[in-house]
Amino acid sequence: MAVKKCVTAVIFLAATTAGAAWAEEPIKPITPPKEINQAKAELGKKLFFDPRLSKSGFISCNSCHNLSIGGSDNLKTSIGHNWQKGPINAPTVLNSSLSFVQFWDGRADSLKAQAGGPIANPGEMALTHALAEGILTSIPGYVTEFKQVFGDNKIDIDRVTDAIAEFEKTLVTPNSRFDKWLLGDVKAVTEQELAGYKLFKDFGCISCHYGESVGGGTFHKMGMVEEYKAKSPAEGRKAVTGKDEDRFMFKVPNLRNVELTYPYFHDGEAETLTEAVDVMGRLQLGKKLSDTENAQIVAFLKSLTGDQPAFTLPMLPPSSDKTPQPKPFEE
């Protein structure tokens, strides 16, 4: 009995210590959003899933940010209107509210600013904001819901993107096994995963991947030690600033749920986590990781998968006779 009490005391002390120590760790546990306008988020959920916001009537936000597979599409680059090949890998929408800017090149400073871009991009949803407003205004169910949420019948792109952003704020993934460890559950992760976390810190990965989202807080150059030979035309921040020194400066991706969001990098060229860790070790840190080290870091990264968003799929309001018809085969 004395031995059992001693063991129990040691486990309790370890858990208490871990729970107190998480505040000192560079990675923080995810906390659920606190202030959500539920009516607006519910409207935003419908808009997120509604393909009528595209010219084809076939593509929705969820097409490239599929919430059943980690908030991305698992393609190197996404498929746009008329099967156009996108120029860049679709980042996950999960935990995107934790990033300081949106898009790989950071051209949008908020979720709301980001939400309007794909709708009007001819290579993505290929509509215009004016046409999107007209389509939604022609649907009685949306007119009613916009009035309930915003107080009047006006439907414009500002309100559309505001609602979509409100829904996207709910798409956080707390309660990963690693979060449980941070909060004091010493049995939540394995020895291999903890060894991987130690390497992740010791090798310097943590200098870019930190905080709640384990990334998403800075821009960084792809190819610090060795040049990265990309197959994508994307040039990162240079496309926004026009400065040569910003070429290949990309927003650091968040690593939450990273085992679900393959392939990796802005061009989607790394098909597996093992490959991604190897490339990042060599190009960013100048380190050739052993198979054991790589496996340990991969194991740690997989412990970052949290609770996925769970909700009832929205029933979209039906079109009216005045609703413009989809044009899936028009350029």
UniProtKB/TrEMBL annotation:
Entry note: cofactor: Binds 2 heme groups.
Keyword list, A-Z: Electron transport, Heme, Iron, Metal-binding, Oxidoreductase, Periplasm, Peroxidase, Signal, Transport
Coiled-coil region(s): none
UniProt modification remark: Binds 2 heme groups per subunit.
Lineage summary: Bacteria, Pseudomonadati, Thermodesulfobacteriota, Desulfobulbia, Desulfobulbales
InterPro entries: Cyt_c-like_dom (IPR009056), Cyt_c-like_dom_sf (IPR036909), Cytochrome_c_Peroxidase/MauG (IPR051395), Di-haem_cyt_c_peroxidsae (IPR004852), MauG/Cytc_peroxidase (IPR026259)
Pfam family, one: CCP_MauG
Cofactors, names only: heme
Annotated protein name in UniProt: Cytochrome c peroxidase
Organism annotation: Candidatus Electronema aureum
